[in-house]
Design goal:
By secondary structure, this protein is an all-alpha fold. The chain is about 90% helix and about 0% strand. Helix 1 packs across helix 2 and helix 1 packs antiparallel against helix 3. This is DUF4229 domain-containing protein.
């Protein structure tokens, strides 16, 4: 699997996991009788920081993938600039 496909898969999984956690917290609160908007607000406030801790490994893979992609893009940009300087 290519680096781009792996990053896309990891990023998608991470986002779905984070949104899933928010949904789970909101559903639990709804079952406890909390109004929908309040349950969603609390789900976001509680779910986002908990997601950082709960999905630490997936977050690290996404961060590493983004860093590798940025490094590759910087090399390509430097190569293009060098080629443009030579053409002048």
């Amino acid at each position: 699997m290519s680096e781009r496909q792996t990053l896309g898969r990891d990023l998608t999984l991470y986002l779905l996991a984070r949104f899933g956690l928010i949904a789970v917290v909101a559903v639990v609160l709804l079952l406890a009788g909390v109004p929908l908007l309040v349950a969603l607000a609390v789900g976001i406030v509680v779910g986002l920081p908990v997601g950082l801790l709960a999905f630490r490994g997936l977050n690290a893979r996404v961060t590493a993938g983004l860093a590798a992609r940025n490094k590759r893009r910087a090399r390509e940009r430097a190569k293009l600039r060098a080629e443009l300087r030579e053409a002048e």
